Amino acid sequence: MNLHAFYNSKYIGDDLLIRLCSQREVTHYQQYHDLCVLYHHDQVIGYNLFHASTYISSLQDGKVKITPEFVEQLNRVLKNENQELVESDYDDRFRVGRVIQIEEHPDSDHMHICQVDTGDETLQIVCGAPNVALNQLVVVAKNDAVMPSGLIIKPSSLRGVESHGMLCSAKELALPNAPQVRGILILDENDYQVGNPFFK
């Protein structure tokens, strides 16, 4: 299981939003003290945890890094409310990749169909960035990655061509001093290696 969690104290207060299954809609919920369990029919798909900083340490605004400590603290809350415990694979799905093949999209004048080596697999990713080119080292958001904006990357079809992931810009990754111009982030060959996690 790949947990996703978000915290935004400025706009929603001391509440933690946790997703277990991103593709299902909430049909109903049940509240147990500070824990609100979200359901899609009979399946638990997420939680809202109120007064979250009381239960989870070191929360910062934005996407929450899922660590063993986080899962342990969340499971303590779930156990106290007689809920099923959760687990996570701790993979944030952001990898260093290399563009090993590129061709023009047959139904677009600006998109390209890229084959990208991510170390353990080659992904086909449709990319509309103007600066994408062969042999570049890039940041790949694989399926189920959660962007800083909250967007969850899912398999898609762009004008009839399957795409499995996204090549990211510095702005999309919310990197400090990211340029506002269009274009993916190109990584330095001396600093990064194909297959490694992008975020340390």
From TrEMBL:
The keyword Plastid does not apply. InterPro entries: DUF4479, NA-bd_OB-fold, tRNA-bd_dom, tRNA_bind_bactPheRS, YtpR-like_sf. Keywords: RNA-binding, tRNA-binding. The keyword Transmembrane helix does not apply. CDD domains: tRNA_bind_bactPheRS. Pfam families: DUF4479 (PF14794), tRNA_bind (PF01588). Coiled coil: none annotated. Residues 88-199 form the TRNA-binding domain. It comes from the Bacteria. GO terms for molecular function: tRNA binding. This is tRNA-binding protein. It comes from Coprobacillus cateniformis. The lineage of its organism: Bacteria, Bacillati, Bacillota, Erysipelotrichia, Erysipelotrichales.
